[in-house]
Amino acid sequence: MKKSLLLIALFVSTTLMAQTGGTKVNGIILPNVVKVNDQYLKINGAGVREKMFLDLYICALYMEKKSNVAQTIIDANSNMAIKIRIISSLVTRENMEEAIREGFAKATNDNTKALDAKINDLINKGFAGDIEKGDVFDLEYAPGKGTSLKKNGKVLVVLTGLDFKKALFGIWLCESPADANLKKKMLGN
């Protein structure tokens, strides 16, 4: 009896550690679970954003239920988050702004006009200061509340609208994503 209870306890603790521990990407441990809008989200997938053979940042997607269908994730009106951890000193405010603007253009098929004010707020309020290696940006979407951008745990801007969230998450998940390999990793492939 004692042996059975010990085995059950060992199984439960191992399962809990696997669910709540971390996912290692490029030597960095990311949480397997984050809390958004009073709901716990599980990591869907994570990878490294590369450009010209340089590792720039780690990006992880968190969702209520795992999915590997990019358009379903983009369109979903449910709690979800993207966590970005800067791993290179080459990432600056200027090149982040350029990448965000280019990403929105690709995600919307060059139809950003209706979102331009929100894109400018995201850039001017969310990425206003210097960006340093080790900074963590959280893009958290909550239905009815909008998308908040946090830098190192501090909320810098909240932008309303499912249309904005779709375009923002599309930067990494659309047909022409920022990094095709990163997209695959975020989708858990």
From TrEMBL:
Keywords: Isomerase, Signal. The keyword Acetylation does not apply. It comes from the Bacteria. Gene3D superfamilies: 3.50.70.10. It holds the Pfam family Chalcone_3. The keyword Heme does not apply. Residues 1-18 form the signal peptide. One of its GO terms (molecular function) is intramolecular lyase activity. Transmembrane segments: none annotated. Residues 23-188 form the Chalcone isomerase domain. SUPFAM superfamilies: Chalcone isomerase. This is Chalcone isomerase.
